[in-house]
């Protein structure tokens, strides 16, 4: 009996060793909404590996799930997840290098549909996603905006825009698309396409400073454009377009980090400056209202993505930590005091609120 | 919000940081052949004051080696970074220091890559090599160009020297290697005696392969079978040398070498993506000359010179820019000259002074390139002293780097002084047991890529510095028993790297951001065991084993999430085992490499885990005479157990493959 017990113990310990080894175990997810309240962080991952991931931070329980997508689907997201957004009951994730659009259930991360963004086998390289009246709009580096029906999840149309389109904004029934041309060094594009959302056709191009990347619309229908310039003579600039008549209200060079989103809530626009500060911009006066939003002596290593939660005014900023290691999410109060932080995956490039 | 420039950069980074060309450097070949007495067929680990490992051409077949990279896998302390396949980049890192820390000498003169600082060892085949020697720290021989002292390790490739006589004034060896991946590789060597003192050697080879193979990958839990595409390789190589020698006191040689390599880059294995449009053409040529003279007075002069030209053309039709894809041209030129004078005031004391100058210029048609020209000067004073059982070497190297740039501002000129101290002690009189230790200071200057590639703003970079301590022992014994020979060497080391240069995607104007931010603490152990057994009924057995332990942790900043984690791609344990038996011209050999798990990123998390691997090779060789001609034939099986593994994340290694060799010597 004793020897039996002994071997039984040995077997148990061997099993426990197996359980703690480096293999990924897939716990099947069955619960209806087992992620709870919180925020998704889309981690781009590296170019040369399929290690993009979707982190979920439950703000109530403080639990971090580093890769919800892998856990729920038993397969990775792919290479360089660039953007994600929730519309209705679905979350849309653009995966740039793998050239796919992954549509998932935000309650549990389960894949609803995988859409290959290829043109006769050639990668389109999807970048950003926006929504309007049950349609999803996806920019791709192959100079297109795809129109996807959010009910059937089929691609209805490709609208050709300028070169290497990046972010989008919607104002007054129009879709504004930043044509960056950023893949042609020394010769970037310098236009914003305007698409009539009733007909899904491009109606005009607005000339802005070179290499426009980030767009956002404020409550009054103005569109903010951040151009990256040419990294040489042409400096980055912030341009404001009047969304009613598409005239340029103002355009000034600015100290802004490349590709940073503008997060707008109420009458405040939040952006990350080139020297790593969070700047608040009043969208009614079009003036900087706070040049250094974060209080105390908090310092980022590589601030990367910014988002603001409508309901609480909390500001979420990710830190990419030099792009070579796992990043972090930092949460600041409405007043700019650090409240909370959470671990993320590699290069956390987008924050998506599951519950606003 | 991915910075698209990162995208562009990464598309290119792989091969820029990844692919190398030849340029230039220094010398010790003929001298070293005298210095390094390879005993029998197994030695290869030498009783020297700094760790030295060697492998001769007779032993290449023991390792089923196709390229230089395959042959050096079995040295202790070495980690080969292999991107897989015949055309895949292969670089060598010694003791966790990175590929840029290993100087590669071709017949004593450095092959320098000013752009990336690393040499692709997959591009050197073994056909024209006589010997490969790895010096850890630095060679102990003083008659060397100064640049040999500048690095953390020296990999010396020594070509076959003419072995001719009046009776046999010529020698021709011709052969063909063929096998898996549609490999076909015919080659020829012609040696010709020209006069009493002059002879010439010509080597030529061409190699073609489609490089395709199946692989298994696991994307977050789902096994996928894929096939490498766009992996075709076509390489042509020709080298020619004339050799002069007069009673061993005066030698001169002039060599010309040209390699052209045209290949697809299969890229990393990515979920839902296929890299099928990236292509790379390399054309590298160099001419080098060495004059070596020893006078009666023990005065020894070594003069070397080299000129090289390397051209690289990269295209990627799928890159979505406005010019129909990426299309980049890289040209690198170098002129190099060195002179070393050594003298023995007493029999047991030798002193030397060496001076080197290298002038490099770089021409790349990428955005806002600076077109740098770099002058590097190396001066070294060294001394070897032997008193009784003690041996001492001290050297002091001075380096000076000055850059000029055509467009942007050039980096400030830099200089550094690096001392090295080596000591050895014969614990047992007949040389059976030798204790050894060294301390070495190494500075690594930012290479031209780190300093200027896509640098819109001048980058303010300091050289990386490492302090290296090594202590070890070598024990050899000859027996009259069944084991006729036994050798063991063990070395423990502690290397500390500061100001480590890191390249990462930038936030704004500098598309690539490069900074001195790293500190690495490296502690390790190298172990070598070799033995040869007395022939039994004509069967002679050989056994060798190399083990490496490396703990290389990042100590840059206690606040980092990866603080004290093992640095990427550094296995804790590596084991290389080689066993074989020879009998009447037939040899059967088994080679086994084990590497423990690694992480491919700074964080040691399961997500970034690269599993351990075992890989085995088998070779069967047969030397025979037919019609009075000497034939050599070999069957080699690489990855005999069809192990599914990667060395570099995303770059699957080939499955089991077969290679046949048939060679005739006239």
UniProtKB/TrEMBL annotation, chain A:
Pfam families recorded: DUF5074 (PF16819)
Domain of life: Bacteria
Alphabetic keyword roster: Signal
The UniProt record lists the keyword Transmembrane helix: no
Signal peptide extent: 1-24
Source organism (scientific name): Mucilaginibacter defluvii
Protein name: YVTN family beta-propeller protein
UniProtKB/TrEMBL annotation, chain B:
Membrane topology: Multi-pass membrane protein
Every TonB-dependent receptor plug domain range: 47-137
Keyword field contains Membrane: yes
N-terminal signal peptide: 1-25
Protein name (database record): TonB-dependent receptor
Annotated InterPro entries: Beta-barrel_TonB, Beta-barrel_TonB_sf, Plug_dom, Plug_dom_sf, TonB-dep_rcpt-like
The organism's place on the tree of life at top rank: Bacteria
Keywords (A to Z) from UniProt: Cell outer membrane, Membrane, Receptor, Signal, TonB box, Transmembrane, Transmembrane beta strand, Transport
PROSITE patterns recorded: TONB_DEPENDENT_REC_3 (PS52016)
Lineage, top ranks: Bacteria, Pseudomonadati, Bacteroidota, Sphingobacteriia, Sphingobacteriales
All residue ranges annotated as the TonB-dependent receptor-like beta-barrel domain in the record: 207-639
Protein's cellular compartments: Cell outer membrane
Organism of provenance: Mucilaginibacter defluvii
Transmembrane segments: none
SUPFAM superfamilies, sorted: Porins
Stated family: Belongs to the TonB-dependent receptor family.
């Amino acid at each position: 009996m004793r020897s039996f017990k002994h071997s039984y113990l040995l077997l148990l310990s061997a099993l426990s060793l197996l359980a703690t080894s480096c293999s990924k175990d897939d716990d099947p997810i069955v619960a209806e909404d087992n992620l709870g309240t919180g925020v998704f962080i889309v981690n781009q991952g590296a170019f040369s590996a399929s290690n993009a991931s979707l982190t979920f931070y439950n703000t109530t329980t403080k639990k971090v799930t580093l890769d919800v997508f892998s856990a729920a689907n038993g397969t990775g997201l792919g290479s360089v997840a660039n953007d994600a957004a929730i519309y209705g009951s679905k979350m849309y994730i653009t995966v740039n290098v793998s050239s796919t659009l992954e549509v998932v259930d935000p309650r549990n991360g389960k894949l609803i549909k995988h859409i290959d963004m290829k043109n006769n086998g050639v990668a389109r390289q999807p970048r950003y996603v926006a929504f309007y009246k049950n349609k999803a709009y996806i920019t791709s580096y192959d100079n297109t905006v795809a129109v996807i029906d959010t009910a059937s999840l089929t691609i209805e149309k490709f609208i050709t825009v300028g070169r290497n389109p990046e972010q989008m904004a919607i104002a007054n029934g129009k879709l504004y698309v930043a044509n960056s041309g950023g893949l042609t060094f020394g010769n970037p594009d310098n236009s914003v396409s305007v698409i009539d959302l009733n007909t899904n056709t491009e109606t005009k191009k607005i000339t802005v400073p070179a290499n426009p990347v980030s767009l956002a619309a404020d409550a009054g229908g103005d569109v903010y454009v951040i151009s990256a310039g040419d990294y040489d003579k042409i400096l980055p600039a912030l341009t404001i377009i009047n969304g009613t008549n598409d005239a340029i209200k103002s355009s000034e060079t600015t100290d802004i980090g490349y590709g940073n989103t503008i997060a707008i809530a109420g009458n405040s626009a939040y952006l990350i400056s080139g020297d790593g500060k969070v700047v608040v911009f009043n969208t009614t006066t079009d003036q900087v209202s706070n040049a250094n939003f974060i209080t105390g002596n908090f310092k980022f290593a590589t601030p990367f993505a910014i988002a603001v939660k409508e309901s609480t005014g909390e500001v979420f900023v990710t830190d990419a930590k030099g792009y070579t290691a796992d990043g972090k999410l930092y949460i600041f109060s409405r007043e700019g005091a650090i409240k909370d932080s959470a671990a993320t995956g590699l290069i956390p490039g987008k924050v998506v609120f599951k519950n606003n | 919000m991915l910075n698209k420039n990162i995208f562009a950069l990464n598309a290119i980074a792989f091969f820029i940081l990844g692919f190398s060309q030849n340029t230039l450097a220094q010398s010790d070949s003929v001298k070293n052949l005298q210095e390094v007495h390879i005993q029998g067929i197994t030695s290869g680990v030498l009783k020297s004051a700094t760790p030295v490992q060697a492998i001769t051409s007779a032993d290449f077949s023991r390792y089923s080696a196709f390229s230089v990279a395959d042959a050096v896998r079995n040295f202790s302390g070495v980690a080969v970074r292999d991107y897989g396949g015949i055309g895949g980049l292969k670089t060598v890192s010694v003791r966790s220091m990175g590929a840029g820390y290993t100087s590669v000498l071709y017949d004593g003169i450095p092959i320098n890559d000013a752009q990336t600082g690393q040499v692709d060892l997959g591009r050197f085949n073994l056909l024209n090599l006589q010997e490969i020697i790895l010096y850890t720290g630095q060679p102990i021989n003083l008659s060397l160009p100064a640049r040999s002292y500048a690095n953390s390790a020296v990999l010396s490739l020594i070509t076959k020297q003419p072995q001719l006589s009046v009776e046999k004034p010529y020698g021709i060896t011709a052969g063909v290697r063929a096998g898996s991946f549609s490999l076909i590789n015919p080659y020829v060597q012609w040696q010709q005696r020209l006069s009493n003192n002059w002879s010439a050697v010509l080597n030529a080879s061409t190699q073609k392969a489609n490089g395709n193979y199946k692989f298994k990958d696991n994307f977050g839990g789902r096994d996928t079978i894929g096939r490498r595409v766009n992996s075709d390789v076509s390489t042509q190589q020709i080298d020619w040398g004339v050799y002069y020698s007069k009673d061993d006191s005066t030698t001169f040689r002039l060599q010309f070498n040209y390699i052209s390599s045209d290949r697809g880059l299969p890229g990393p294995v990515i979920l839902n993506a296929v890299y099928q449009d990236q292509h790379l053409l390399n054309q590298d040529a160099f001419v080098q000359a060495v004059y070596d003279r020893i006078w009666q007075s023990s005065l020894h002069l070594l003069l070397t010179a080299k000129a090289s030209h390397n051209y690289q053309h990269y295209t990627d039709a799928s890159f979505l820019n406005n010019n129909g894809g990426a299309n980049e041209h890289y040209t690198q030129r170098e002129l190099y000259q060195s002179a070393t004078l050594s003298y023995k005031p007493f029999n047991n004391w030798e002193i030397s002074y060496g001076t080197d100058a290298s002038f490099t210029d770089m021409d790349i048609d990428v955005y806002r390139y600076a077109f740098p020209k770099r002058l590097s000067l190396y001066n070294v004073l060294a001394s070897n002293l032997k008193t009784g059982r003690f041996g001492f070497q001290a050297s002091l190297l001075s380096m000076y780097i000055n850059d000029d740039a055509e467009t942007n501002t050039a980096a400030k000129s830099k200089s550094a002084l690096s001392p090295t101290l080596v000591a050895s002690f014969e614990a047992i009189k007949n040389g059976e047991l030798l204790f050894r230790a060294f301390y070495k200071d190494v500075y690594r200057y930012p290479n031209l890529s780190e300093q200027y590639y896509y640098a819109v703003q001048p980058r303010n970079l300091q050289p990386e510095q490492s302090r290296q301590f090594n202590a070890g022992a070598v024990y050899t014994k000859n027996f009259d028993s069944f084991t006729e020979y036994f050798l063991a060497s063990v070395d423990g080391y502690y290397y500390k790297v500061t100001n480590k240069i890191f390249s990462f995607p930038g936030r704004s104007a500098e598309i690539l951001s490069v900074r001195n931010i790293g500190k690495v603490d490296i502690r390790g152990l190298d172990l070598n065991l070799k033995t040869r057994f007395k022939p039994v009924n004509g069967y002679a057995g050989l056994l060798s084993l190399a083990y490496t332990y490396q703990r290389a942790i990042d100590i840059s900043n206690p606040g980092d999430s990866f603080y004290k984690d093992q640095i990427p791609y550094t296995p804790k344990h590596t084991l290389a085992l080689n066993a074989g038996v020879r009998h009447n011209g037939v040899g059967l050999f088994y080679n086994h490499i084990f590497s423990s798990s690694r992480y491919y990123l700074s964080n040691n998390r399961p997500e970034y885990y690269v599993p351990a691997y075992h890989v085995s090779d088998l070779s069967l060789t047969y030397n025979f005479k037919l019609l009075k001609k000497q034939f050599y034939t070999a069957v080699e099986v690489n990855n005999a157990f069809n192990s599914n593994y990667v060395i570099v994340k995303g770059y699957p290694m080939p499955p089991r493959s077969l290679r046949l060799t048939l060679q005739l010597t006239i």
